[in-house]
């Protein structure tokens, strides 16, 4: 048998190139963004440190050392001590638990409310959409900080009041955002096909619309957590944030509340201030990257 005949009898070899999954493509794009990677690494480090805080520092957040009042950073107290001799590193780590938890839970509450109302308003249309949007318009007339001050003054300043208050006040903005997304999705072909075969509206919203909105939900939550943390710090400056001795990044920075403390005792406000600012910047970098990656119009 000739060489040509042997070659013709051999089974044809086909090379198939498997296309990477969408998740793999998104991860590759995320890793190619230095700002997003840096922000993710920083947030991961902060979350690990605040979780294992008892193993990082030997002090308690309310533990007072009368012999080390307002001491600068040293071997024993790496970031110095505050006005009553409490270890600054310890209070920053435990304060991070409170600030991050308030930011996360408040965003979960407001996002859940905004997502449900936005989906119902955008998909339902008609009088349902009109009624929800008029309520949203009324809520948007009042500044969030004004309503939050009323809530805190009525129920008292506490972490629970802050996270519930910010969660219940931020939903009108999220409702508008999610409604606009649902309006653009409900006219797509697969939604029209689901309607034509008699699929219920609730099932269409749950199985077809919600999955397409989740990328926007992820971006919205990532960007919103930093806003909530900044709002808590602002309320602490007014004396209506998390109350001492419970530490939060807001009330730790606010402790340096006069020019003398700011000039002479920089370690009272520089480390917690830098951590707060860096956290908000990291969350914004991650959120911006996710928005660019998950939005098909921005991927190019």
In the CATH hierarchy, what is the class? Mainly Alpha
Question: Low-confidence parts lasting 5 or more residues at pLDDT below 50?
Answer: 5-16
Compute the average pLDDT: 87
| Helix content, binned percent | over 70%
Shape: globular
What is the CATH topology classification name?
MetI-like fold
How would a textbook summarize the main sheet? none
CATH superfamily: MetI-like
Helix and strand pattern: HHHHHHHHHHHHHH
Distance between the termini: 55 Å
Assess the beta-strand content as a share of residues.
under 5%
Q: How many DSSP E strands? A: 0
The Cα radius of gyration reads: 26 Å
Could you explain the architecture of this structure?
The protein is mainly α and 300 residues long. The chain has one domain (33-59, 86-294): MetI-like (MetI-like fold). The chain has helices at 3-9, 22-31, 34-51, 53-56, 88-124, 126-141, 144-155, 159-169, 171-185, 189-196, 201-237, 249-254, 259-264, 270-294. The longest helix has 37 residues, at 88-124.
Question: Could you list some keywords that capture this structure?
Answer:
single chain, 300 residues, mainly alpha, MetI-like fold, 71% helix
Quick synopsis:
This protein has 300 residues and is an all-alpha fold. It is 71% helix and 0% strand.
Task: Produce the secondary structure layout.
Layout: H1 3-9, H2 22-31, H3 34-51, H4 53-56, H5 88-124, H6 126-141, H7 144-155, H8 159-169, H9 171-185, H10 189-196, H11 201-237, H12 249-254, H13 259-264, H14 270-294
């Amino acid at each position: 048998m000739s060489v040509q005949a042997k070659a013709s009898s051999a089974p044809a070899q086909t090379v198939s190139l498997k296309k990477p999954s969408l998740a793999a493509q998104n991860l590759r794009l995320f890793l190619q963004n230095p700002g997003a990677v840096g922000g993710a690494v920083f947030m991961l480090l902060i979350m690990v440190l605040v979780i294992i805080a008892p193993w990082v520092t030997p002090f308690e957040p309310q533990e007072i050392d009368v012999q080390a009042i307002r001491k600068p950073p040293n071997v024993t107290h790496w970031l110095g001590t505050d006005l009553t001799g409490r270890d600054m590193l310890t209070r920053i780590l435990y304060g991070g638990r409170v600030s991050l938890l308030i930011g996360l839970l408040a965003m979960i509450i407001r996002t859940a409310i905004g997502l449900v109302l936005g989906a119902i308003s955008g998909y339902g249309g008609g009088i349902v959409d009109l009624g929800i949007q008029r309520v949203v318009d009324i809520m948007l007339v009042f500044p969030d900080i004004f309503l939050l001050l009323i809530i805190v003054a009525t129920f008292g300043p506490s972490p629970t009041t802050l996270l519930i208050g910010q969660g219940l006040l931020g939903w009108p903005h999220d409702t508008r955002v999610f409604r606009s997304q649902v309006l653009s999705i409900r006219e797509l072909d697969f939604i029209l096909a689901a309607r034509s075969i008699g699929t219920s509206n609730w099932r269409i919203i749950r199985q077809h619309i919600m999955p397409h909105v989740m990328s926007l939900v992820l971006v919205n939550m990532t960007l919103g957590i930093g806003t909530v943390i900044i709002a808590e710090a602002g309320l602490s400056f007014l004396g209506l944030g998390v109350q001492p001795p419970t530490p939060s990044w807001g009330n730790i920075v606010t402790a340096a509340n006069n020019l003398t403390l700011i000039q002479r005792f920089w370690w009272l406000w520089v480390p917690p201030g830098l951590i707060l600012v860096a956290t908000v910047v990291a969350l914004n970098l991650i959120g911006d990257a996710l928005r660019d990656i998950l939005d098909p119009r921005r991927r190019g």
